[in-house]
Amino acid sequence: MEDVAVSKPAPDLYLEACERLGVDPAATAAFEDSPRAPRRPQQPDSS
Fold first, then answer.
1. Confidence class of residue 35 from pLDDT cuts 50, 70 and 90?
2. pLDDT for position 23
3. Given this model, what pLDDT does residue 8 score?
4. What is the dihedral of CA 28, 25, 17, 19, to 10 degrees?
5. What residues contact 31, with CB distance under 8 A and at least 6 apart?
6. Between 30 and 38, where is the model more confident?
7. DSSP letter assigned to residue 2
8. What is the rounded CA–CA span in Å between residue 29 and residue 31?
9. What is the rounded CA–CA span in Å between residue 4 and residue 15?
10. Is the Cα dihedral 3, 6, 9, 15 positive or negative?
11. Residues 28, 34, 43, CA angle at the centre, nearest 5°?
12. SS (H, E, C) 30-46
């Protein structure tokens, strides 16, 4: 997590992972395994 400026629930970690894997974030899904986590990861502003 030290490779991103902001950790969860901000999308930075997910976007970094997508970039490293070479996948489009819009074509992915994120699942959270913590009961204290947000209901879904925050989405980057697409406007």
1. confident
2. 95
3. 65
4. 140
5. none
6. 30
7. T
8. 7
9. 9
10. negative
11. 35
12. CCCCCCCCCCCCCCCCC
Indicate the residue type of 8: K
Block residue for tokens 């997590």: 1
Tens digit of each residue's pLDDT (9 = 90 or more) over 18-34: 999 999 999 998 877 77
Residue bearing tokens 């901000």: 10
Backbone phi, psi, residue 4, to 5°: -125, 150
Is the preceding peptide bond at 11 cis, omega within 30 degrees of 0?
no
Provide the terminal-to-terminal Cα distance of the chain, rounded to the nearest Å.
Answer: 26
- pLDDT bin (cut points 50, 70, 90) of residue 47 is very low
Flag whether pLDDT at 42 surpasses 80.
Answer: no
